[in-house]
Amino acid sequence: MKMFIKFMLVTQIAMGLGLENSSLSAAEPSSMAGPPSVAYRLKETNTIHFDDAGKAELHLQTVRKLGCEAKMDDHGGHMDVSYRLKSWNALTLDSEQTAHQWEGWLKKSGFETMHAHGEDHDHAGHDHAGHDHRTAGDSHAGHQHGLADGHFFGDGHDHGHQSAEIVSYSLPNWLTTHTRDQREADELVAILKGLGCEVREGRHDGHGDVVFRCSRPMHIEFQSHRVAAGWEDWMKRTGFRTQHVH
């Protein structure tokens, strides 16, 4: 069953980011594109050491509300919070500023993230004339197999390094993809929201359909050539028009 999580942070979240009273919700798969979204995951368990019990508890509750498996160990005088999230999830925020704050916190907390911008966004810095690698259309062959396993893109991304690779893309026409199960559908929806796409989801004849488009030219920055190339390959196979700027 799909889970929809919505909560308010009424104090500063761990790691010192001042996001008082920020609204945070898991992306609702059936909603249209609107407010900015940040997709995130954490395949390998991450552990953070806290000397302050209050901060440790706040971090624990925050990552749990983000969908993580999490636990806290008290070692007498300090606490360790360990957590992971093997599948992609997404947050929909109320503004770009809040999205950037959350993306920064997620990265500092060990997560892999995706947050796209329109081609007119200031930090693009390039005039991207997109190459059409494939005509967009309906995809009913289950090409998203592998989403839940995560082997279709570059794992081992480089935490803490400045982004150096940009992939520009668009998908003018609606595209429909069948998914094998709800987990795969949820993960695909989260990724597409991180890419800034409009997304709809439905079920019929015993299977799920994810319907999406990205009519506005977008770009997203990656932290290494390997990760950018992996995602561009996935986008092309999925039906996006792409250009990879080195």
The radius of gyration over CA amounts to: 18 Å
Our count of helices gives 4
pLDDT averaged residue by residue: 75
- Secondary structural class: alpha+beta
Compute the separation of the termini in Å: 41 Å
Count the beta strands: 11
Task: Name the helicity range.
Answer: 10-25%
The biggest sheet amounts to:
6 strands, antiparallel
Q: What is the 3D form?
A: globular
Helix-strand string: EEEHEEHEEEHEEHE
Portion in strands: 35-45%
Write a concise keyword list for the protein shown above.
246 residues, six-stranded antiparallel sheet, five-stranded antiparallel sheet, 22% helix
Description:
The chain has 246 residues and is an alpha+beta fold. The protein has 4 helices and 11 strands, in the order βββαββαβββαββαβ. Strands 1, 2, 3, 4, 5 and 6 form a 6-stranded antiparallel β-sheet that branches. Strands 7, 8, 9, 10 and 11 form a 5-stranded antiparallel β-sheet that branches. The chain is globular, with a radius of gyration of 18 Å. 37% of the residues are buried. The N terminus is likely disordered.
